[in-house]
Amino acid sequence: MALRWLVRGCLFALLSGVSASAWAQDTCPKAGTLGVSRTVEIDTTGGPGFGMEHYKAYDFLQDKEVVLTFDDGPQKYATEAVLKALADECVKATFFSIGKMALGYPEIIREVAKAGHTIGTHTWSHKAIAKAKTFEEGRAEIERGISGVHRAVGGPIAPFFRFPTLVDTQEAVAYLGKRNIAMFSTDIDSNDYRPQTVDHLAKSVVAKLEKRGKGIILMHDIHKRTAQALPIILAQIKAKGFKIVHLTAKAPLVTLAEFDEAIEKEAKGLPQVGAERPMSSVVKTVGGAAPSDAAANDASEPEGLPAPAEENAHAPTTPLPAFPSASTPAEKSASPEASPPAASSATPGKQSSNEPSGAASASAQPAQAAQPSALPVASSDGTTAPPPSMTTASVVRTVSGNGETEPSGTPAEPAAAKSEPPAPHKSLMERAKETWKLWFGE
Ligand SMILES: [Zn+2]
């Protein structure tokens, strides 16, 4: 009987012009969802800046167009819920991930990549670049973030960068320009790090969007409230006729070998993409009662998660300490938001020995990256003027007006796995427990 209905269903699907796979699967685009209205491709040559709060060069959004961005992740609870909310509405976003977080939660950042979202970076440990004691320290924070996220994703990422606390420096802006990495500020800051109800957060984001009419929205995929507000925000965006624009990169980001090598020590034990084995295939309960994963998966994220440093974005209330190149255990407890569980047992302090010294790294400028012929001009107020020869049309190109194309900066299918056997890696439950301990004590 069931078979007969299945055959009838397939026949109906074929006759009505719907492919069997689309009929059988709940895939995007899907009727009734918000969807992606336009996919744009960004030529990051010369490090163009986006987001009118700081970089006023390229105002590529049309009226009612919205770009969704999420900083500071990945983090298990919030990122997974954010991914679900985005998938439910068939929309794509850009994630500015932190290197340490990505190596702490590689399986989550790989889910982000697999879902077709664009992944940019947001430094190694969320240290303020402007507070770096030397240019090399700031550069290492940027590059280690890039190599860390790249290693965790296990495939290409986009040459998109957002400064922690949205504070840049002229030196760093010029450096990113030479590296052909685009910089993103924001148009609409959700202020989702501030304690507030889910309803208040959703209403305030939608109100700001309505007032401005369009824009790049900054949120954080580390807060439970953000994940809970997102479905409400997306429903409102849909109801009010706003449209989602998906950002992709024309070419993937080129990492620097010296930082890849340093990061490999941090990533010790992390299997390459495709080499992972599900825990159930590695560890099997053969006697006694099997423990449930619930302890790790159902532990609800407490509301009191540490706020990211974005709260200092406009008016730092307390001076931030100048950061060393690698966090110390003491610093870990002082700024827990930037301290996900380490991906390896190597102590953070050890990493400093891998840091390039000024002279050594100065000669190791990005050889792979083509030097742009024209660099953006950083002004004293932090804004970036476009090189004279570049127009918005030459930097931002619509590659899809209605459906979706595969983002060039983020592969739908991660790079082919190497055939090395999976090295021991901490289980999800272990890391969840460590995170808890790190943030909330025993
Ligand atoms: Zn941040």
Structure description:
Residues 64-245 form the NodB homology domain. Belongs to the polysaccharide deacetylase family. GO terms for molecular function: hydrolase activity, acting on carbon-nitrogen (but not peptide) bonds; metal ion binding. The protein has helices at residues 2-15, 20-24, 76-88, 99-104, 106-114, 135-153, 170-178, 198-212, 224-239, 257-266, 279-282, 294-297, 329-334, 358-362, 392-395, 428-440; strands spanning 36-42, 49-50, 65-71, 94-97, 118-121, 160-161, 182-184, 188-189, 215-220, 243-249, 377-378, 384-385, 396-400. The longest helix has 19 residues, at 135-153. With 442 residues, it is of the alpha/beta class. Strands 1, 3, 4, 5, 8, 9, 10 and 13 form an 8-stranded mixed β-sheet that branches. The chain is built from 16 helices and 13 strands. The N and C termini lie far apart (56 Å). The protein has one domain: Glycoside hydrolase/deacetylase (TIM Barrel, Alpha-Beta Barrel), CATH 3.20.20. It binds zinc ion. Zinc ion binds next to loops.
Write the layout of secondary structure elements.
Blueprint: H1 2-15, H2 20-24, E1 36-42, E2 49-50, E3 65-71, H3 76-88, E4 94-97, H4 99-104, H5 106-114, E5 118-121, H6 135-153, E6 160-161, H7 170-178, E7 182-184, E8 188-189, H8 198-212, E9 215-220, H9 224-239, E10 243-249, H10 257-266, H11 279-282, H12 294-297, H13 329-334, H14 358-362, E11 377-378, E12 384-385, H15 392-395, E13 396-400, H16 428-440
Parallel strand pairs: 1-10, 2-7, 3-4, 3-9, 3-10, 4-5, 6-7, 8-9
Antiparallel strand pairs: 1-13, 11-12
Bound molecules: zinc ion.
